[in-house]
Amino acid sequence: MTDVATPTTPARAAIAARAAQARARRRALIISAQIAIAVLLLAGMYALNGAQGNLVMPRPDAVARQFVAMTLDGTIPRALGQTLTVLVAGFVISAVTGVLGGIILGGFPTIGRVMEPFVNAINVTPSAAFIPLLIAWFSLYTEAKIALVWLAAFFPILLNTTSGIANANKDLTEMAQAFGARRRALFWSVMVPDALPSILTGLRIGVAISTIGTVIAELTMAQSGLGGLLTAAGNRFQMDRYFAVVVVLMALGILITSGIRRVERHFGRWRISQAEGR
């Protein structure tokens, strides 16, 4: 039996340094590619504006001026606050109910099989089909918009959580049961931690759909927020103003997605540490 040689401290330092350099080069390459794509998009906007005019594509500098003007006069901050109120409330409610519902459906297979056809039936129905019903229930108030966002984001979170819980590591589950772990301990100490990647994927999908659902709600119900600004600018063919709002929505989506990814990385490191500690 031969011993496996372990790297010395200088060798480990050299390996770590090379890995850090490789990550830095890859990061620089990614940033360079992103900048190049952004420049090409801006050049394309200028070219399309020159060929077709402002009605088809506004100039990027006109969009920037309109964004600054709408920010300084309070139009965008007010609309952003209204949009975030609906988005945050709808997503938080859908996250709580979706995760809890997924834990129940995934942890109790019999309940999951009973509810499966009903969940699938509502899931495949477009959320827009429920808009008249929501208006009848909640009128055109903020509650109706929050309900639409919840309905749009609830099922991706529910289904991903259900799948993660149902497919939790069987060896760990059986080992915990052999040591006399109760159902509650199985849920919170074994099944839920093992299902975290699926749960976080559902939350990431859910927050993206929540953003879309918020804009749809603001377009189809009482027009307010960023969706209301889009409608007003589109009806008047003010394309520079329209694109300024689109830029805000894109930035909002990037910030939300980046936040969810940071949470995923944090819990990913936690799961690795937990696995190494076992």
- CATH superfamily placement of the largest domain: MetI-like
CATH architecture of the largest domain: Orthogonal Bundle
Count helical runs. 11
Count of strand segments: 0
At the first level of CATH, the class of the largest domain is: Mainly Alpha
Helix content: over 70%
Cα-atom Rg, whole angstroms?
24 Å
- First-residue to last-residue Cα separation: 27 Å
Bulk shape = flat
Which whole number gives the mean pLDDT? 81
| Content of β-strand | under 5%
Q: Which H/E pattern describes the elements?
A: HHHHHHHHHHH
Largest sheet: none
Task: Briefly note the CATH topology name of the largest domain.
Answer: MetI-like fold
Classify the secondary structure makeup into a structural class: mainly alpha
Domains counted in the coordinates: how many?
2
Low-confidence stretches: 272-278
Features:
transmembrane, cell membrane, flat, membrane, 84% helix, MetI-like fold, 278 residues, disordered C terminus, transport, mainly alpha, 2 domains
Chart the SSEs and their pairings:
Layout: H1 9-52, H2 60-72, H3 75-107, H4 109-123, H5 131-138, H6 142-166, H7 170-178, H8 183-194, H9 196-220, H10 225-235, H11 239-277
Brief account:
The chain crosses the membrane at residues 28-48, 84-106, 118-140, 146-165, 209-230, 242-260. This protein is mainly α and 278 residues long.
